[in-house]
Write a structure and sequence with these properties.
By secondary structure, the protein is an alpha/beta fold. The protein contains 6 helices and 13 strands. It is globular, with a radius of gyration of 16 Å.
């Protein structure tokens, strides 16, 4: 029986459309899960239904998180924010963390998990290392170093891997109950994870776009955690 994984969908404020790239769904299918899109909602009763139905969650990539949520004023480098999506994903992430449910955050999703845990973000990275590649989405662009003894280390069993990169924000201060599990050569945090839950992991790259072993292992690990959730 495939576990049902909920993927937070984006919301286009101009067109009023709910949308999500097919990479996420395809990656979950290949890993052995079924997928359902979760439209952003404000009704806590609907959020509760999401939590009752799904066995695991994916927080996907997207636009910037409003720095209001970690107590900062917006800087000049801040990109477009989506208040409806921010509210929904941060509230859902808080509830998931409280209940220690399996979740994988990808790029923006990694940042959402950190802000939901009361951490902070770098609004606009300043580094000699480029973190927004001009290359195909599945091309591994730069190295990251994985911290030994972390959940990410156990999943990948690699000290270093190469990843793609499409972000200008990043985790600055890990939130409560979160630790750093990978970083780039310039010191930018590339992955965080919960020290309190069996599987709450955020990665700054886009494994759904790649077909390497490390990317497959991430989604398979989420599916394994979802199968045992609540047991």
């Amino acid at each position: 029986m495939r576990p049902l994984i909920g993927i937070c969908s984006n919301y286009n404020m101009e067109s009023g459309e709910y949308c999500l790239r097919d990479y996420y769904v395809d990656s979950l299918y290949r890993a052995g899960a079924s997928a359902v899109l979760l439209p952003p909602v404000e009704d806590l009763n609907l959020l509760e239904q999401y939590l009752q139905v799904c066995k695991g969650y994916v927080f996907p990539g997207g636009g910037d998180v409003d720095p209001f949520h970690w107590g900062e004023l917006p800087g000049w480098g801040l990109g477009e924010i989506n208040p409806r999506r921010d509210y929904f994903e941060l509230k859902l992430a808080e509830l998931i963390m409280d209940r220690k449910l399996p979740a994988l955050g990808i790029c923006r999703g990694c940042q959402v998990l950190n802000v939901a845990a009361r951490g902070s973000l770098v609004q606009d990275i300043s580094s000699p290392l480029r973190h927004q590649q001009k290359a195909p989405r599945d091309y591994p662009f730069h190295d990251i170093v994985i911290k030994p003894g972390t959940l990410l280390d156990k999943i990948l069993d690699e000290a270093e891997i190469r990843v793609n990169s499409f972000h200008h924000q990043a985790v600055e201060r890990p939130g409560r109950g979160m630790r750093i599990s990978a970083f780039a050569p310039d010191g930018i945090i590339e992955a965080i994870e919960s020290v309190e839950a069996p599987f709450i992991l955020g990665v700054q790259w886009h494994p759904e776009c790649m077909r390497d072993k490390a990317s497959e292992q991430l989604f398979k690990a989420l599916v394994r955690a979802a199968k045992t959730a609540g047991n």
